[in-house]
């Protein structure tokens, strides 16, 4: 009896290849928005220059999937090393690109040629390589999904970085689908009774030893149904949540304006004042400040605003309760129910370059009548990013979460306009330093009852 053959995860390889290609073509189109003169600039001083990211995406797929997952060689060890890691310093003063301040970055043609070689290697591996479940980084095809989700996540990083570039350094699309109409929705508060919330990913951890391979296949266009989750999503657990009260709508630019004008905080980095008038610093143009849009601010500024009203930010468990809880007690997959995310449910999946009016996607409302919890900007919480009980770093990307359990990062939940639909799941957690003002993150205020 031969028992030596490695167990094979059943992956819908065609769907995974399609997702990879979709990712790659979107990444390419995002880099093509940048004028060549800006390619070596650092739109955010706390991050690497743009060139790094175009090399980083393929380099990471090599490291997580090809090297760690399959145990195979990449295509160019020098470039894979150069493009291996991003940075997250606590201040601009200490923001030396990880590869060194004197790093000589290659010309774009070299970066693109590297990307093409990696694409050929990765696609061949997705289609033909044996997926050996006994390799720690390949349990349930972990390394593959790590690479796929990593690229999708970075597309959001790229876009909020592009937001900081001067408009003349970007190629403006001919059609800009801005929705700027109207007044901010009337402020309303929703009471949510005490109950329970499930945090974390209820599927089996990717690297669980002895786990039977998944036989579920992926549906075209929706990524894979192999229940991938990042390490910080495990283990799933249920927590009690006291009764609380929460704003039905995000705090808007209109709500926030008096707070800025009274001098309580610096204006958000997405705002600009010219000739006595406030503007929204959009991706491709400045717009007279749309008062109905959610305000994008740092966690610190959001918390200060909430405090000024005698309120606070919601906690991570409160987010879960408000978004996925229901009066009858069961929890939903999405705020609106079980239907897969589409753009009628929320402003996400690259629907546009900037926000839409708060409350303008009522088909995505939660069971309690809370709007925009998933979409139109991530939601800041007051919860420090920390490991769930039973956390173990993932073999395909052990540094992903563990380095950030430092008491210096806060959890964001939900999704923004630049969050790919494949990343939208209740257990997905995002995190940033409280003073980081560049992300597409909004908030609402909460109060205890
Ligand atoms: Fe990365």
What do you see in this structure?
The strands form 4 sheets. This protein has a 4-stranded mixed beta sheet. With 449 residues, it is α+β, with helices and mostly antiparallel strands. α1 packs antiparallel against α4. It has 9 helices and 12 strands. Fe (ii) ion (FE2) binds next to α2 and α5.
Rg result:
22 Å
The main β sheet shows up as: 4 strands, mixed
The counted number of beta strands is 12
In percent, how much strand structure appears in the residues?
A: 5-15%
Global shape: globular
Task: Give the oligomer, counting copies of the same chain as homo and different chains as hetero.
Answer: single chain
- Cα(first) to Cα(last) distance is 65 Å
SSE pattern, N- to C-terminal: HHHHHEEEEHEEEHHEHEEEE
Helix content range: 25-40%
Number of separate helices = 9
Describe this protein with a few key phrases.
9 helices; alpha+beta; 449 residues; three-stranded antiparallel beta sheet; single chain
Describe, in short, the structure shown:
The chain has 449 residues and is of the alpha+beta class. It is built from nine helices and twelve strands.
Break the fold down into its secondary structure elements and pairings.
Layout lengths: L12 H19 L18 H20 L7 H6 L25 H21 L13 H21 L26 E4 L2 E5 L37 E5 L2 E4 L5 H9 L9 E4 L2 E5 L4 E3 L10 H10 L7 H9 L53 E7 L14 H4 L7 E4 L16 E3 L8 E2 L3 E3 L1
Parallel strand pairs: 8-11
Antiparallel strand pairs: 1-4, 2-3, 4-12, 5-6, 6-7, 8-9, 9-10
Helix pairs in contact: 1-4, 1-5, 2-4, 2-5
The chain binds fe (ii) ion.
The site of fe (ii) ion has 5 residues, from α2 and α5.
